[in-house]
Amino acid sequence: MGPRDHFATRLGFVLAAAGSAVGLGNIWKFPFMAGQNGGGAFLILYVAFVLTIGLSVMLSEYAIGRAGQRNPVGAFRVLKGGAWPAVGALGVIAGFVILSFYSVVGGWTLAYAIKSVSGALASNDPKVLGAAFGAFIAEPRGVIAFHTAFMAMTLFIVAGGVQGGIERASRVLMPALAILVVVLAVRSVTLEGASKGIAFFLTPDFSRVTWGTVNAALGQAFFSLSLGMGTMMTYASYLDKQVNLPKTAAQVTLLDTGFAVVAGFMILPAVFAFGFDPQAGPGLTFITLPAVFAQMPAGPLFAFLFFALLAIAALTSAVSIIEPVVSYLIDERGVSRRAATWGAGAVTWALGVPSALSLGPWKDVTLGGKGILDAVDYLASNIMLPVGGILITLFIGWSIADRAKEEAQSDGVHPFALANVWIFICRFVAPAAVAWVLIGGL
Ligand code: TRP
Fold first, then answer.
1. What is the SS3 assignment for 124?
2. Ligand 1: does its nearest atom lie under 6 Å from the Cβ of 98?
3. Which atom in ligand 1 lies closest to the alpha carbon of residue 24?
4. Is 23 in the pocket of ligand 1 (CB under 6 A)?
5. How confident is the model over 149-186, as pLDDT tens digits?
6. Is the beta carbon of 381 within 6 A of some atom in ligand 1?
7. CB-side exposure of 221: number of CA atoms within 13 Å?
8. Distance (Å, rounded) from C-alpha 91 to C-alpha 375?
9. Stretch 26-51: mean pLDDT, rounded?
10. pLDDT tens, residue by residue, 364-388
11. Which of 110, 174, 260, 296 is the most exposed place for a label (fewest CB within 10 A)?
12. What is the Cα–Cα distance from 221 to 174, expressed in whole angstroms?
């Protein structure tokens, strides 16, 4: 998308925003986070955060982006100036951090798409599949090659203006992924022994909830909805005045959350049915799903389709992570799109290398008690994005409240009955709640 291109239709924007939101966060991260954080309690906290804070921040980013008609730094500058553009700059930095590890996991999905046709994954034995993932991840050359391939694909899309193509393609491929995820969830919940996993996912055990759990659920809400760093702001800057922002925010949010919940049903029942460890962390989806495919007719075909579609969903998200960075470099620094894309991409790629090595050769290197990939994810999702969210909602609530209300109602075209509730949440509820969770989590 060029700097001042516009979405032709509201549907086009919903698909692009949903394409950004739906990705590895829903299908890779949500199930393993739920597995690590007690299942049902995590689900409830996550949904509660999405419906209150998530929706409010989503609408806030839309309003800032469309009112500012610029990259995040520029939008804050034209709307208010002062120190506010620094919020946009924080988002640009977060973009580098997030894409660095996102691309590594995107590379895993590419590798698994290939492995699923080569027959390397045809087993339902947790030991065999765990060892297969372990062997893949331990070999740095392969992991870095796939990280490189994923990053290159992302950059080609961003640099080359093939967006028209990928947007059109994702109109077909995203629904295809949705259907596949539902089919796999049905297979998973009907496995023998699945009921323990269903109970784990749906029955909250609040005795196991810690600040860490609450912080994780909040971070997951931001990450999965693509909030807190200016992605949604940047996309909304390409949006027409006629579009109904609150309605669009609600649709994108529900679509994203729906995807995550179904992905939970796809993974967690199978984890229990086959005797995998729900605490396995970032490898969980990659070791569990092949066992599900092994229980299906035409399993390798399903496996290939699934990982290929997941890689595409991850690409549409990756594009949206780097787009704010690129649009900042173009608008504010006068860099050409091509130079901005490849320059930012090279830095991000290099930042990703330690994450790529962190489950293999560097698995004993820890930062704050976590492996490198987990630590980078934690820094971005559980700290940078929520801090961004606090600042974004404070900006809406205290700095540009009247302007924001007008923008959210498209200058009277789409009356929004809850406008004052939204402003109230942005003024008090969201900043206080997020700050409280952050402080408690540290
Ligand atoms: N939401 C995407 C996912 O779930 C990832 C993503 C895209 C993102 N843009 C973002 C995360 C901006 C944080 C901020 O996979």
1. coil
2. yes
3. 15
4. yes
5. 999 999 988 887 545 656 667 778 888 999 999 999 99
6. no
7. 27
8. 18
9. 97
10. 999 999 999 999 999 999 999 999 9
11. 296
12. 20
